[in-house]
């Protein structure tokens, strides 16, 4: 009986020691190289530029008249009246903001006609949520103006370009262009998240802070930043355990970057948790066998 008990204990320890490889099977993005040696400094300079519009981007384009006067008038103090000097341009009615009891409020968003405030609020909401796809050829099909090539320009340049285009139909246009589908992926010890890039520039530390920071399960000295074409990506190994490691790392993110925080495998505790049901079963069987022998 003692020999069987010792054999069971030895088998348990053997399984425990061999489980290191088993519990490391879900570690992702391993590489045979050390740290990927490509110029992080040059990469940081490239990231420092403004975002450039690419095919398959979704854009929100908001166009205001009168140099965006409505944006600085949240209380609707500027009612809109037709401009008598330029009633129509290109078949479209122009409107300017001015005082007058008979005038109706107007939102200042291109494509919206004077009317009730409820209708205006509904239309404005629809315009805010409307998005436009950048096609494979780099063109965007926009209301009234049709196809406009925006591939390869920054958002600031797109604002200026579209303002000139819409000035053919409206007075002193002010354009705000934003992208909807810029995001980075966060995987590993902190979970799986799709993190939208709300700002023009976002740092790795900010993304980690949004999702709990460095917890007890994360290896902050082994963070992989995967960038570019997934068939031949650039991979950067980042060490945030020291200030020196942070200084050497490229912490500014690009759209579609993948951040992988390697988890710490607590092999002993995980193995004990997995072996507990087996050991309980063996203990129960041993108890039953001992009880039967005592009765005999």
Keywords, separated by commas or semicolons:
33% helix, Outer membrane lipoprotein wza fold like, wza like fold, 7 helices, 3 domains, alpha+beta, 23% strand, 296 residues, three-stranded antiparallel sheet
**What do the pLDDT scores average to?**
71
**Total of domains:** 3
Strand content range: 15-25%
Order of helices and strands: HHEEEEEEHEEEHEEEHEEHEH
Can you describe this structure?
The protein is α+β, with helices and mostly antiparallel strands and 296 residues long. The chain has helices at residues 2-23, 40-47, 117-129, 155-166, 204-210, 243-248, 267-295, and strands at residues 58-64, 79-82, 88-89, 92-93, 95-97, 104-105, 132-133, 139-142, 146-149, 174-179, 183-188, 193-196, 218-227, 234-238, 258-263. Helices cover 33% and strands 23% of the residues. The strands form five sheets. Strands 12-11-15-13-14 form a five-stranded mixed β-sheet. Strands 7-1-10 form a three-stranded antiparallel β-sheet. A three-stranded antiparallel β-sheet has the order 5-2-6, with no helix packed on it. α1 packs antiparallel against α7. The longest helix is centred in the C-terminal third of the chain and has 29 residues, at 267-295. The protein is elongated and about 105 Å long.
Blueprint (SSEs and pairs):
Blueprint: H1 2-23, H2 40-47, E1 58-64, E2 79-82, E3 88-89, E4 92-93, E5 95-97, E6 104-105, H3 117-129, E7 132-133, E8 139-142, E9 146-149, H4 155-166, E10 174-179, E11 183-188, E12 193-196, H5 204-210, E13 218-227, E14 234-238, H6 243-248, E15 258-263, H7 267-295
Parallel strand pairs: 11-15
Antiparallel strand pairs: 1-7, 1-10, 2-5, 2-6, 3-4, 8-9, 11-12, 13-14, 13-15
């Amino acid at each position: 009986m003692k020999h069987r008990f010792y054999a069971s204990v030895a088998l348990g320890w053997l399984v425990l020691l061999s489980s290191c490889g088993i519990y490391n099977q879900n570690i992702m993005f391993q590489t045979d190289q050390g740290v990927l040696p490509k110029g992080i400094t040059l990469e940081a300079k490239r990231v420092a530029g403004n975002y450039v519009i690419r095919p398959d981007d979704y854009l929100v384009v908001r166009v205001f008249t009168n140099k965006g006067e409505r944006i600085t008038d949240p209380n609707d103090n500027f009612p809109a009246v037709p401009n008598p000097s330029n009633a129509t341009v290109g078949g479209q009615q122009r409107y300017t903001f001015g005082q007058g009891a008979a005038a109706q409020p107007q939102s200042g968003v291109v494509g919206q006609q004077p009317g009730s405030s409820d209708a205006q609020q509904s239309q404005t909401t629809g315009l805010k949520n409307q998005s436009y796809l950048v096609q494979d050829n780099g063109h965007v099909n926009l209301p009234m103006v049709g196809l406009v090539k925006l591939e390869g320009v920054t958002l600031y340049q797109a604002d200026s370009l579209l303002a000139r285009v819409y000035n053919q139909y409206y007075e002193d246009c002010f354009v705000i262009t934003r992208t909807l589908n810029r995001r980075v992926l966060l995987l590993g010890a902190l979970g799986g998240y799709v993190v939208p890039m709300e700002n023009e520039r976002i740092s790795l530390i900010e993304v980690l802070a949004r999702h709990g920071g460095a917890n007890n399960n994360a290896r902050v000295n082994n963070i992989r930043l995967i960038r570019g074409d997934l068939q031949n990506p650039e991979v950067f190994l980042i060490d945030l355990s020291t200030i020196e490691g942070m200084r050497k790392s490229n912490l500014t993110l690009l759209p579609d970057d993948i951040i992988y925080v390697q988890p710490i495998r607590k092999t002993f505790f995980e193995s004990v948790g997995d072996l507990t049901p087996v050991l309980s079963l063996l203990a129960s069987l041993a108890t039953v066998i001992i009880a039967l022998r005592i009765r005999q």
